[in-house]
Amino acid sequence: MLRYLIRRLGQALLVVAGVVVLTFAIMRLLPGDPAVAYAGPKATAAELAEVRARFGLDAPLPVQLWEYVRDLLSGDLGTSLHTRQPVLDDLMLAFPASLELVGAALLVAVVLGIPLGIVAARYKMRFLDFSVRIGGMLAVSVPVFWLALTAQTVFASNLGWFPVAGEYDASLDTTSPLTVYTNITIVDSLITGNWPMFTDTLHHLVLPALVVAAYPMGVIAQLTRAALIEESGLDHARMARALGFGESAVLTRFSLRPVLNPVLALVALVFAYAIVNGFLVEAVFNWPGLGRYAADSIRALDTPAIAGVTLLVALLYVLANLVVDLVQGVVDPRARVR
Q1: Which of 50, 52, 120, 121 is the least buried, fewest Cβ under 10 Å from its Cβ?
Q2: What is the pLDDT of residue 336?
């Protein structure tokens, strides 16, 4: 297990190093002049030269890369050109809202996707199976921004079941102010017993979380179904049937556990995708997360902020895959030889 851990950590570090170099390249290849974006279009040549010297933009590229890596190791992602605040501070404010949305979406996707896959495998080639498969195909293929706009129009604007936009009602900042510990509103309101804030945030969260959950839920359901059908045809499953166990017991008691390994790996793969996919949902529902911050950064040609968002999403992807690899190594020793 120790060798497996060292090997996976080494691979993760190589990926992170590649991401850092790629992020630096993105910062330098984006069109426009960051100095102009920071100082303004009416800045004089002397002011632009001062900005370039301040941020090291006038140094040779190898020197800029070394300084970028050195700053990253010290936790410095640079200064945002449009907020004039450290990018790391901005990300620490924006990321918790995105994590709240994506975390709720993945919870919904796993809680609903695995049972739907079991039902589809249990009733293979019947109505329930076809329903799950068609629903999964639609969830995977429908553009998320269209789904978000449709859900907002039908369930928020027309039916009035959910709020149209926002994380919570702004009036609660006055009537029920929140004590912040994690910057994740629903968590902070729960641990502090701020029930008006908790219920209102939960009410605002339901619709965008369901929209973000659509894609991973469809993929998880289809993967669970396919893996269960394959696993239930193996010798150990046939032996269970011969001993008198019903089909439901064969699927859930004897076939489900080996199937969970690829499902866990899939959750890691869709985690970072859901973060990026959630950007569009955040834009539709005016959710105060990374999506809004990234959109503002792109409009302002804020290369440090854009690079910071890119690096954060890439690191989350690497970390999620590393955690799943380690969990798989503990659950299934056969995974350690890969």
Answers
A1: 50
A2: 54
